[in-house]
Amino acid sequence: MKSKMLLLMCAMVVAIFLAGGCAPRKAVKKTPADEGAKPPVVASADQETDEAGIDESAIPPEGSARGKSFDEVMNINLEDVHFEYDQYTLSPEARNILSKNVETLKNNPKIAVQIEGHADERGTVEYNLALGQKRASSVRAYLIAAGIDSQRIFTISYGMERPLDPAHNEEAWSKNRRAHPASAAQ
Known about the structure:
Elements: H1 2-20, H2 70-74, E1 81-82, H3 92-107, E2 111-118, H4 125-145, E3 153-159, H5 170-176, E4 178-185
Parallel strand pairs: 2-3
Antiparallel strand pairs: 1-4, 2-4
């Protein structure tokens, strides 16, 4: 009798545990704008998803693909600008490169640019991040002064974290001290 009672109590505890573990579902109201919207893409098991199970990589970034195809964006070549050791001022050679980039950007007004600031591996992480930001900002300032809309130009610093050349010598370091303009459609 005790074993039957114990078994019954265990079954009730398991049932309560299972029923209590399920959170109630929230009702979602649809707006008129949602009526024509496509349902979210649900990812397969091997893709990264957010808490709701939506594959975030399937969502295009804000402002992408407006007026330009992927091929058109990828055919726009903006050149890197290189810097001297521990410097963020633009050399005459860098200004020549940037003037070509300005013409390309003026001919493609729907293109936004993210300027990536990079440094070589010498120095602390914090110092190189700050130097990379100064390099990206000096390129941004040049582009704005040349007539490119400031809302088309964004900056980010990677410091020494994304070297172009992973070797540990002066030749590699000179390649890594750069500002890289990456373009994308607005």
